Predict the 3D structure of the following.
Amino acid sequence: KPDGVLTAFTDRDGRETLADHVPVPDVYPAGRLDRDSEGLLLLTDDGAWSHRVSSPKQGCDKTYRVELAGPLVADAEERLQRGLVLRSEPAPTRPAVLQRLDATHVRITISEGRYHQVRRMFAALGNRVVSLHRERIGGLCLDAALAPGQWRALSDEEREAVLSGSCAR
């Protein structure tokens, strides 16, 4: 999904949606990406499979590459591993895994999908997300050959990989 595209097929305000990129009828997103986020988005016509991918109770990991406005606090890994209490939410997030790529770029893996969760987690750490790109869902890594807005069908192996832990290529 390109940055700026709504994870929907219609919009009453005329904004760009998935329908502008995917000419396949009768599919819907298995999960969501914020309008200001880009990367791997799965579409399906299989409700049970979609539930297994997107339900927080199923624990399907999602990995994001994140650009931050400034350097991350020293204890970010520990705090994310323990879980963070986000504004207006009673329970902490599930443990997340953080990999620092450089001073302002990280990779984070989460296993739930709360509203704007990754952005809110970094805000709770005193930082701001500049860009957010989903690279992986379960065991499926984004196909590097696809440009933003392009799509392709998954193989049976890839559909199963989404529900496993290692990337199918």
